[in-house]
């Protein structure tokens, strides 16, 4: 009886933990917020479906280019992209949390990535003039922004005509944005779909700003 009772208690506790986890994920999804700095350990874990190599391949960063990274966190992707634009390019890494910005600045300095410029900013109000960047990317970030359409419109604004945008999404991120939803929202704000790699639940999608009409 003792063993059976213990098993039932353990099973009940596990069931409650699962329900609590689901409830937390649903609340987080309905209230978009970035991963807090105190939980940064999770954003440095390996990401098999949305790797550094894949984002670099699809983004095609080139030496001398100006690249925008929105929501870099602690810099999981930043160093790889920064290396691709050296020696004269720059990666402007914009994060809404000052603690992430400070962490990224220290991390990039230790790695000798002088092309990275971390800055605090909001994806809905980017602190740059029109046509500032050759390309931009964000991974597991769009769903954390309360006004996704506004963020996409801002990205289109700061990209030069013909500029490239890569968006990465993957389950089980509670803020996961499906490809169909992403494409509709992006195209609504002047971004043209170009390519996609990955699976339905873990993918990168590439868009471009329409080029300027010939004069």
From TrEMBL:
Keywords on record: Methyltransferase, Transferase
Stored CDD domains: AdoMet_MTases
Sequence ranges assigned to domain Methyltransferase type in this UniProt record: 68-167
A biological process from GO: methylation
GO molecular function ontology, one term from the record: S-adenosylmethionine-dependent methyltransferase activity
Pfam families registered for this protein in UniProt: Methyltransf_11
Protein name stated in the entry: Methyltransferase domain-containing protein
Superkingdom to which the source organism belongs: Archaea
The keyword Methyltransferase is annotated on this UniProt entry: yes
């Amino acid at each position: 009886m003792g063993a059976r009772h213990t098993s039932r208690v353990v099973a009940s506790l596990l069931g409650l933990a699962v329900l609590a986890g689901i409830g937390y994920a649903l609340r987080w999804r309905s209230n978009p917020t970035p991963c807090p700095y105190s939980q940064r350990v999770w954003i440095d874990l390996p990401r098999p479906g949305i790797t550094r190599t894949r984002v670099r391949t699809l983004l095609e960063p080139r030496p001398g280019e100006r690249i925008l990274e929105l929501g870099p966190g602690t810099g999981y992707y930043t160093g790889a992209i920064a290396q691709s634009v050296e020696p004269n390019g720059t990666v402007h890494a914009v994060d809404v949390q000052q603690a992430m910005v400070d962490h990224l600045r220290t991390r990039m300095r230790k790695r000798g990535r002088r092309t990275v410029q971390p800055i605090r900013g909001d994806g809905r109000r980017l602190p740059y003039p029109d046509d500032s960047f050759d390309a931009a990317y964000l991974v597991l970030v769009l769903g954390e922004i309360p006004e996704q359409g506004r963020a996409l419109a801002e990205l289109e604004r700061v990209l030069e005509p013909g500029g490239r945008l890569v968006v990465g999404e993957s389950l089980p991120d509670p803020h996961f944005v499906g490809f169909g939803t992403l494409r509709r929202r992006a195209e609504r704000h002047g971004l043209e779909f170009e390519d996609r790699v990955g699976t339905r639940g873990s993918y990168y999608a590439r868009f471009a700003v329409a080029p300027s009409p010939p004069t």
